[in-house]
Amino acid sequence: MLEHLTDRARFLGAFLTHPRQVGAVLPTSRTAVRAMLDQADVAGAELVVELGAGTGAQTQEILARMKPGARLVTVEIDRKLADFLAQRFDDPRVQVVCDSAENLQAHLGTDRADVVVSALPYTSLDQALRQRILDVLPGVLKPRGEVVVIQYSPLMLAEFRKRFRHVQWSITPWNVPPAFVFACRQD
């Protein structure tokens, strides 16, 4: 319980420092994270990429679902949160990257992800930055790869449909505020 409250305080501190970059005052609820991850085959993935890791609400659940030998590249732009994640998740499967998601390709090299999990606050990002990040996503996926995204508004649906052939969405009402989950695929 204390760890949960500490995570909330740490997340709130990051929000107060960079509100447009963080986009929410609280981490995503466990229920919403599970609803998002249920949309992708994390258990069968060799490489999972997480964008906007925050305090690790998604990271913890991704690791619980990943198989031994799989790899998680988690991207967090906030240096303090990235350092916290590196300490918190002492797991050989995890690589914490402190950078903007727009530079993801440089960190993956020739590797391609089976699953990309994104909790980035797309609607609060500068439009040019948002476009650069979204444009990177299709290129970092394996042919049958999946992108799952959690948002607090349905406004990004058209942007996902521009980049992916198949986009499904649902609402997770048990999050505060209610969250929209998007599952995007090319095949």
Q: Bin the helical content.
A: 25-40%
Mean pLDDT, to the nearest integer, reads 88
Question: Taking Cα atoms only, what radius of gyration do you get, to the nearest Å?
Answer: 15 Å
**Termini gap:** 42 Å
**Regions with little confidence, pLDDT below 50 for 5+ residues:** 7-16, 18-25
CATH 4th-level superfamily = Vaccinia Virus protein VP39
Explain this structure.
With about 190 residues, this protein is of the alpha/beta class. The longest helix has 16 residues. Helices cover about 35% and strands about 25% of the residues. Helix 3 packs across helix 4. The relative contact order is 0.17.
Describe the SSE topology:
Elements: H1 2-17, H2 19-22, H3 30-37, E1 47-51, H4 57-65, E2 71-75, H5 79-88, E3 94-97, H6 104-108, E4 113-118, H7 127-136, E5 141-151, H8 157-163, E6 166-172, E7 179-185
Parallel strand pairs: 1-2, 1-4, 2-3, 4-5
Antiparallel strand pairs: 5-7, 6-7
